[in-house]
Request: fold
Amino acid sequence: MTALPSYEDWQLRAACRGHSAAIFFAPSHFERKSAKLEREARAKAVCAACPVRRECLAHALRFHEAHGIWGGLNEDERRLVAAR
Ligand code: SF4
Reply:
């Protein structure tokens, strides 16, 4: 028997499938603020049309995802949501 990767149903419907992860996560090298804002805007545009945005954000908050754009929010924005 072959083990298949385990995905939650919402992940299979994610609008970011097929998009480069590079727009959702910071590069390993220094990133200027202007480049970060531009990269995040591109990622957030994908999220804005995502049918599972709510599930994605809930997942990120539940598992304390520390990096990247999840549910249309970056890490700082998620911290603000979590603090409410
Ligand atoms: S909300 Fe954004 S990061 Fe989350 S699954 Fe949808 S497109 Fe991907």
User: Anything to note?
Assistant: Residues 52-84 form one domain. The chain is about 45% helix and 0% strand. The longest helix spans residues 33-48. The pocket of iron/sulfur cluster is lined by residues 14-16, 24, 46-47, 50, 52-53, 56, 69-72 (CB under 6 Å).
